[in-house]
């Protein structure tokens, strides 16, 4: 009888990276469908552009690095990066926005640092931040929910708008974003910020038609759908609960405190949780296994930090939403978190 | 040290920006355009030559214990002179470089050369070393400024008249028109990214040179002595 020696780790998941990534983008489907329902077909075109760009960029990097080009298709990490970025940007943004962003994500954020598993920063969010600080106008031109919009866009009209800047009937993006009263409307978080800066109370601000019953027409359902997808990921154990719960708590607890003490000037915690990119961030972005902390305790702290940063930037910062910045800032703290939350090996430590 | 090797050290082998990574603060802060880069590069070059000559001349009279304050004062004197000159003759550039002109005092590339070279070598060589190190620094500034200006704005030598006089307005090249400037390239993160790539390219070139320098070992061919 031979005595076999196996190297650690002795307990491991039997899933390959490809399978994990497949679960991630399957779980994104409900959110995607709600986005299409509320914000039109633009997102589909953005996703196509993102995926094509990501594959080309990935293949190019593989070739430059002297690796087999097919491996660009083997694990689906580039695909997930492209999908997350495509979902994150406004649906009718010009085509070159998503191309620049995805190419930056794959080439500079991922491959310059050493490719899959070696990147320090979340590629999709780094790409998003690059786009946001480089093209603030295009990146904040969110379309109105279809239900409020005066102009209906078909699937191919959206493509024409994305590639030429005008719809076939001659409207530009700015006109599409006007409500019935001819005023351009911002996203819920953006209008809240503007209203607070104009010394309105939250109740007054919430009178605008952009706010639905809970947290903004359209946005609340998009967030709910991402929550659903996230719960599926938890159920099939692709992600652990530590990061999402940490992030949602880190956002909700300070938001609730602020809301209790000054309800007129603070956004309610429910509104925080169901607007902007909160749920997408909590379940799909912050849980990126490469750039998150390693141990479970560390992941809880990592999530809490992201949640608090989102609250802080939304409340006091210069941008209406903050998930991308919060995730990048938390990515930077990961080495420190890992250092102080390293699990003690059995038999070591003082209390054992 | 021969003049040839000083040149090689300053421009490539020991380039203050690419290898020593000194003076990164002004390097990254002012290289949004070629003009700014050239202006700051020339200012640094002049300060470097002046301070190297002076430090080298006084090196035998300065006690070792207080050499750093003395060097700093020498450098600060030259920086003040350059600052007043720029204020007088290239006022537009003076304004656009702003705080980074007085900050040349704190550029570690300059005190680094004073300490590492000028305080140990005769003045002619020190002057030449200052010139070459300054040139190396300026060249990197210009390359970085060029990359950032082209990517960010699609232009080259925008605002060159601030530095070189009115005729230089004709130098402005518009490579392509951009409706929306890529702000990333003009903002500080773009400087870090571009700088990283320049250093990587430099290392790549060094790597190839090294590979070419070491000739492949001779293959020993043996004569077959046994029958097939």
TrEMBL record, chain A:
Segments spanning the bilayer are: 20-38, 73-89, 120-139, 210-234, 241-261, 267-286, 298-316
What EC designation does it have? Answer: 7.-.-.-
Task: Provide the membrane topology annotation.
Answer: Multi-pass membrane protein
Positions carrying FMN phosphoryl threonine are 187
Q: Does the keyword Secreted apply?
A: no
Example GO BP: electron transport chain
Q: Where in the cell is it found?
A: Cell inner membrane
Q: What does the record give as cofactor?
A: FMN
Indicate the principal place this protein occupies in or around the cell: membrane
The UniProt record lists the keyword Flavoprotein = yes
**What does UniProt give as GO cellular component?**
plasma membrane
What protein family is recorded?
A: Belongs to the NqrB/RnfD family.
- HAMAP family per the UniProt record, alphabetical: RsxD_RnfD
Oligomeric form and interacting partners = The complex is composed of six subunits: RnfA, RnfB, RnfC, RnfD, RnfE and RnfG.
The job of this chain, per UniProt, is described as: Part of a membrane-bound complex that couples electron transfer with translocation of ions across the membrane.
The protein's matches in NCBIfam families, at most eight in alphabetical order, are given as: PRK00816.1 (NF002011), rnfD (TIGR01946)
Which named protein is this?
Ion-translocating oxidoreductase complex subunit D
State the organism named in the record.
Pseudidiomarina halophila
UniProtKB/TrEMBL annotation, chain B:
Record localization: Cell inner membrane; Endomembrane system
Which family is this protein grouped under?
Answer: Belongs to the NqrDE/RnfAE family.
* Self-association state and partner proteins as the record states: The complex is composed of six subunits: RnfA, RnfB, RnfC, RnfD, RnfE and RnfG.
Q: Give the originating organism.
A: Pseudidiomarina halophila
Q: What does this protein do?
A: Part of a membrane-bound complex that couples electron transfer with translocation of ions across the membrane.
- What's an example GO BP annotation here? electron transport chain
Which spans are transmembrane here?
Answer: 20-49, 70-91, 97-114, 126-147, 182-205
What protein name is recorded for this chain? Ion-translocating oxidoreductase complex subunit E
Query: Topology in the membrane?
Result: Multi-pass membrane protein
Entry keyword Secreted? no
- On whether rRNA-binding is a keyword of this UniProt record, the answer is no
